[in-house]
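Cross-check.
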Amino acid sequence: MSTILQGGQGPVVATTIRVAIVEDLREVREGLARLVTGADGYACIGAFGSMEEAIPGIDANLPDVALVDIGLPGMSGIEGIRILKERHPGVQYLVLSVYDDDERIFEALCAGATGYLLKKTPHARLLEGLREAVEGGSPMSPEVARRVIGTFQRVRPPDRAAYDLTPHELRVLRLLADGHNYKTAAVELGVSVNTVAFHIKQIYEKLQVHSKTEAVTKALKSGLI
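Predicted model, tokenized:
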């Protein structure tokens, strides 16, 4: 939301960043809301304790950026981001989590998260990260950025012909890269969940990986998709 202010050389546009917060711990949620509300140029337009509350709340009142915990009761923050990203692609989704493992980081990024900050992030950097996300950046804690780089460095792309993936397997792999899960990929392909699971098992074996994150990373690194 923009407000027109009168400056010495004419009108100046001051932009207020609208922030939604999804955090199950009440004291943390309320602390974040106070931080955002008390900062110049920011407004907290909603603070939710679960994704089940956040999705309809965000549907009704779109923020510029949503600050999302991923370890939530009920629906995970990652699944919630995936749903919201499909509905509201213009909103930015910034993870704020205690988890810094490869699996969660890449699941969140594949689901549509713009960036990934750890909960120990200083308040000033957190506010900076919210603005950075809205302005087109991808804020990440240093530890997270190092893990992202490390994962790509560990993946060595052999000759792509050696993988021998079928056209169906490549299509499933592209859907995984787009953030689909077994169920949504099955709907997209018009097949059963069991069929998707079979293709994914074949993909894992051919790529010699053990998770969706590793499969997508290796496929991107090797130019398969």
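Confidence is low (pLDDT under 50) at residues 1-14. The CA atoms of residues 157 and 222 lie 5 Å apart. Passed to J.P. for a second look.
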